């Protein structure tokens, strides 16, 4: 079941975001920077993104296992708990998010995140050529959905 994040489920969404974000960025960030991404910090992040218009969704199986956000045509914050990956949850969240988009769905991934790249390309997303460059040689790549109807 995928449902909107509410005040009651916000702590669960923030915990998923925290654990999954740390795991996804472990090879790029210092231990201190990773440690700063606590569930409390991620709760504040989710609330701030919602004030900008993002809508967060929570995937619940027997327990909450993943989140995603959508704002207009932008899909972001797609995270599945590390122990729950490779079970189709990321695909379920992605397909749901695509249906929430207004216009052509787009998203950003870390340039070195091959697992995410494979997931998105398997479902019709392609790089647009737009790159965001950050300090330390970290880059994000923009992808958009090309010619796929869900």
Low-confidence stretches: none
Helix content: 25-40%
Report the sheet with the most strands, covering strand number, pairing sense and barrel closure. 4 strands, antiparallel
Helix count from the secondary structure assignment: 5
**Could you give the count of β-strands?**
7
Distance between the termini: 18 Å
Coarse shape: globular
Description:
This protein has about 150 residues and is α+β, with helices and mostly antiparallel strands. It has a four-stranded antiparallel sheet with strand order 1-2-3-4, sandwiched between helices. The protein contains five helices and seven strands. The model has no long low-confidence stretch (mean pLDDT about 95).
What keyword list fits this structure?
150 residues; alpha+beta; 4-stranded antiparallel β-sheet; 3-stranded antiparallel β-sheet
Q: What order do the helices and strands come in, and which of them pair?
A:
Layout: E1 2-4, H1 10-25, H2 31-35, H3 39-51, E2 55-60, E3 64-71, E4 74-80, H4 89-100, E5 106-110, H5 114-122, E6 125-133, E7 139-145
Antiparallel strand pairs: 1-2, 2-3, 3-4, 5-7, 6-7
Task: Describe the structure in brief.
This protein has about 150 residues and is an alpha+beta fold.
């Amino acid at each position: 079941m995928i449902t909107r994040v509410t005040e009651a489920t916000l702590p669960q969404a923030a915990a998923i975001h925290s654990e999954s974000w740390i795991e996804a960025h472990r090879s790029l960030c210092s231990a201190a920077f990773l440690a700063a991404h606590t569930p409390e910090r991620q709760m504040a992040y989710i609330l701030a993104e919602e004030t900008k218009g993002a809508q967060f969704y929570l995937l619940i199986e027997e327990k909450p296992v993943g989140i995603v956000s959508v704002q207009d045509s932008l899909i972001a914050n797609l995270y599945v708990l590390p122990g729950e990956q490779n079970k189709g949850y990321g695909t379920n969240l992605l397909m749901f998010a695509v249906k929430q988009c207004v216009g052509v769905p787009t998203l950003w991934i870390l340039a070195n995140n091959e697992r995410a790249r494979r997931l998105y390309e398997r479902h019709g997303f392609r790089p647009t050529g737009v790159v965001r460059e950050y300090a330390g040689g970290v880059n994000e790549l923009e992808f958009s959905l090309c010619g796929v109807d869900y």
